[in-house]
Amino acid sequence: MKVIVDCLARVSSSRHHRKFKSLLLEYLDNEGRRRICYGTDGQARQYEDSAMLNYRKLEAWDMLVDDSVEFAKKNGLDGIHLDNGQAWPQIMEIDRDELMRIDVDGEPSYTAEDLMNGEVVIRNENYGYW
Questions:
Q1: CA–CA separation, 14 vs 66, rounded Å?
Q2: pTM
Q3: Hey, what's the torsion of the CAs at 43, 125, 32, 107, to 10 degrees?
Q4: Pairing mode, if any, of strands 10-12 and 46-52?
Q5: How many angstroms separate the first and last alpha carbons of the chain?
Q6: For residues 38 and 15, what is the distance between their CA atoms, to the nearest angstrom?
Q7: I need a surface site. Which of 37, 43, 49, 59 has the fewest CB within 10 A?
Q8: Is the pLDDT of residue 45 over 70?
Q9: What is the tens place of the pLDDT at every residue in 56-107?
Q10: CA-CA distance, 66 to 93, in Å (whole number)?
Q11: How far lies 4's CA from each of 47, 66, 70, 82, 87, in Å?
Q12: What is the average pLDDT across 114-123?
């Protein structure tokens, strides 16, 4: 008998490991506060028990792959099923207005790297896949 487990591209929204803290995908709420993006199908559904990672950051993608391989080896698994793998990873549209915002001192609020990494996105707007 072969043992295969499901693998998701999301993490727990309430109790994620500290290594994911800088990799969580964020958006601005109606009051302008940064919030994590819950897991989603990219269109209408949100899964509040999970949070999305920012896959514009190579380290997020590498961590997902490394963790999956390590989990399989550690537990003697024969394989991993990539749940909805054809759509991995989801990329949300960046919040260009926020990322191009200028502070009161005339300096940009975000760096060019923040812009490239899509540090703030428009929630539930599917932009594409890698």
A1: 22
A2: 0.80
A3: 170
A4: antiparallel
A5: 34
A6: 13
A7: 43
A8: no
A9: 999 998 998 899 889 889 999 888 888 777 777 778 889 999 999 999 999 9
A10: 26
A11: 24, 17, 14, 10, 20
A12: 92
Cα separations (Å) of 64 from 6, 19, 28, 120? Answer: 13, 11, 25, 21
Strand partners, 12: 50
Give dist(CA 127, CA 78) in Å, integer: 34
Distance CA 88, CA 82 (A): 9
Rg, Å, the chain Cα set: 16
111: tokens are 């760096």
Among 26-30, 119-123, 126-130, the range scoring the smallest mean pLDDT is 126-130
Query: Could you give the dihedral angle defined by the CA atoms of residues 44, 5, 91 and 35, in that order, rounded to the nearest 10 degrees?
Result: 70
**Rounded-to-integer distance, Cα 124 and Cα 130, Å:** 17
Determine the length of the chain. 130
Give residue 8's identity as a one-letter amino acid code: L
Nearest-5° angle of CA 103, CA 122, CA 42?
165
d(CA 47, CA 41): 9
DSSP state of 25: -
